[in-house]
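Revision sheet: structure tokens.
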Amino acid sequence: MQEKICQILSNLESENNLRSLKEIQYSGKYIQMPIPKQNYLKDITSILTHIAHPRFYAKDAMLNLSHNDYLGIQNNKELLKNFLEQNLSSILASNTPIFSSSSSRSLSGNHISFQVLESSLQTLFNQAPYTSTKSALLFNSGYHTNIGIIDALASIEGVLFLCDSYVHASIFDGLRLSRAKFFRYPHQDYHTLETLIKSHQKNFPYIIVVTESLFSMDGDFCNIKKLIEIKKSFNIFLYVDCAHSFGIYGDEMLGLNSKFINDIDFIILAFGKAISSIGGAVICAPSYKDFFINKSRSFIYSTATPPLSIIWTNHIITHINSFLPQKSHLISISTYLREELKKAHIHFLGDSHIISVLAYDNQNATKLSDFLANCQIFTPAIKTPTIPKNLARIRLSLNANLSFEDIDFLIECLKLAKNILKI
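Predicted:
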């Protein structure tokens, strides 16, 4: 077997698809790591004196455009200080475990902190006049949430999933692991979706349409209004993953407009993005919550998240409106970057803070990533088979710590790359 594994790894390397783990030190909007070999040193002299060049922060610093801390919470020392001052004494004074729940919630791990966070989420998602009663159930991650919810729903006879072809890998893993019956429809192609519903509704009484609110790779939004129209027209169910939009978009930073919440059967949240924590949750009807407690294997058979992480998540959730300035700044720099990319005739995808600069094939994506690394910008290449063939890219994940000067620096580097690499 070892020989076979070595051959697989060799094939991945020859296809320029071999992953490795880098030694890095996180430092706000920067990471510190060894700078790659300077293959383009003579080509980038014009940007070395730019006010936002990372070398003015630290010699080995790289501007980090690959993380999901969208509101810049990790770098907010004042927020962390306030959290510890408000919570640490009570945590230490109580008998609540801190660093491990030591059990699944189904056994002895259901500490009060879990119920407090679920209550906070329920308050957030049950705001009049739009919503009826919604419940929240926590999972260990967004990944656990998707595979657990899909696994439970797939156990119901007569269920069929219809999924946008660009939904997250965790959704497809849930479908495959549960041996669910499912079909993909082309990305955002709602005409084909309706055709699929019509052709399968006779044999499947419970059709669940699965989409992301904000698609994690292309950075575009689903047409939630159209999907709700389809739901009502065909009397089906709607499952919306809000991992990358929760905490940023929507009138209450819920990931989507609150007027749509009551029409969505399953809303999936992930706390490892804008909330800067760990874990996930489903927002659904109370009866569904009870069903998932009994049928979601990733919930039943996992040691629960450490209570300290749950208390931190609740602190962020209950103060979510205090991050409106960060949200506003993030949207402003994202809009600015998209406008400047258009002016420079640089091909990109995205209508949000997630912006993919297209390089088309794997080799060009690697070249572009390496060039930017020489500029001290960290943005790994995203290549086939992670994304469809001929759509290789670098994905820029913007965050509220970035300044307009940082964005200008990025644009200058991308312009240089376009001229030098001819991509």
